[in-house]
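Title: Comparing notes on inverse folding

I've been comparing how different people in this forum approach sequence design from structure. To keep things fair, I'm posting one structure and asking everyone to reply with a full sequence. Here's the target:
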């Protein structure tokens, strides 16, 4: 065996020779590549790759501040299936939130977590820098914004109003006129997504209106959603949401037909759901709702009455531009039948019940 002392001497010789080799090696200057091989960084503008209207990353923006440098005070009107989790996410993110709802008791859970309460939309708007509204239908959206003690009465120059309700373009423009008449800014921002995405902060915002307000409320949208689009003038956001929900309602009606037909011809509808989920027509909606539909269960994430309302509004939008929508029209009739069966407050997947023999 080699003694420890001898091993150490051998190691020292190796290290010394290595150092000599490194020190004696010439350091050559780096020769730049020929000009024609260098990447031209000034030929393609970087901004052309990422539209400014789309949130490119999932990281959350920092809390927005008012002109005085303090965090902006946020109002939230309407605490239903969607509004309540959206407001809750703002509170969890540390924002100063003031809430209102027609049924005052729905405000209690949020107040217990730190939210403030005001007894009218006007008082919420007056006490906040930016006010969000999530109402069930166009009539409610107009009343809360423009009616007696409505939000417009509390708006002044420098404030902002963001309507995240699903309404038609004409309704959105009407609300915009009332808000802007006070000197305040207006943004429509209907969302794509239902209860679970609202709870998880994974909504998609389809915005239009005052772009300065869009930039200002971006941190709040990023708390409540995973992406946001700025689409231009008021009415464009409403139109995009109606087109999306028209497609969704028609898809659910067709999916319902497929489930019942598979059962009638002796197939296992559960297997159909699995087959669909793995093919080219796969959609998260089918995977999420299909298993419960097979069991005739429809836990409400998006009420059927709201889906039918959106189909009706989408058909009106199509009529206004003379666009034929026969599939959506047929789907709308099916949802109307489902409503007549008392399924209005069930999830919109309950439309399958309208196809079952009674």
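Reply #1:
Here's my take.
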């Amino acid at each position: 065996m080699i003694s420890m002392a001898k091993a150490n001497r051998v190691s020292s010789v190796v290290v010394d020779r290595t150092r000599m080799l490194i020190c004696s090696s010439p350091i050559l200057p780096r020769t730049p590549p020929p000009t024609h091989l260098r990447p031209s960084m000034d030929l393609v503008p970087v901004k052309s790759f990422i539209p400014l209207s789309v949130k490119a990353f999932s990281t959350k923006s920092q809390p927005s501040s008012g002109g005085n440098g303090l965090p902006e005070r946020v109002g939230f009107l309407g605490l239903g299936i969607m509004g309540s989790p959206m407001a809750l996410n703002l509170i969890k993110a540390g924002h100063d939130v003031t809430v209102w709802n027609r049924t005052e008791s729905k405000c209690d859970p949020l107040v217990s977590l730190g939210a403030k309460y005001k007894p009218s939309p006007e008082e919420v708007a007056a006490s906040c820098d930016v006010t969000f509204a999530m109402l069930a239908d166009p009539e409610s959206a107009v009343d809360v914004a423009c009616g007696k003690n409505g939000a417009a009465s509390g708006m002044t120059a420098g404030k902002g109003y963001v309507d995240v309700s699903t309404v038609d373009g004409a309704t959105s423009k009407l609300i915009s006129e009332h808000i802007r008449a006070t000197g305040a800014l207006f943004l429509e921002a209907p969302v794509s997504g239902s209860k679970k995405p609202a709870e998880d902060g994974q909504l998609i915002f389809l915005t239009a209106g005052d772009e300065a307000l869009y930039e200002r409320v971006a941190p709040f949208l990023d708390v409540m959603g995973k992406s946001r689009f700025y689409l231009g003038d008021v009415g464009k956001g409403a139109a995009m949401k109606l087109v999306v929900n028209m497609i969704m309602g028609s898809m659910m009606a067709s999916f319902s037909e497929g489930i019942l037909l598979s059962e009638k011809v002796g197939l296992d509808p559960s297997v159909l759901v699995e087959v669909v989920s793995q093919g080219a027509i796969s959609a998260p909606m089918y995977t999420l709702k299909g298993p419960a539909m097979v069991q005739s269960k429809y836990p409400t994430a998006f009420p059927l009455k709201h889906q039918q309302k959106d189909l009706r509004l989408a058909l009106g939008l199509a009529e206004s531009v003379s666009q034929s929508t026969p599939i959506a029209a047929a789907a709308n009739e099916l949802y109307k039948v489902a409503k007549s069966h008392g399924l209005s407050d069930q999830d919109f997947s309950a439309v399958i019940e309208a196809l079952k023999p009674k």
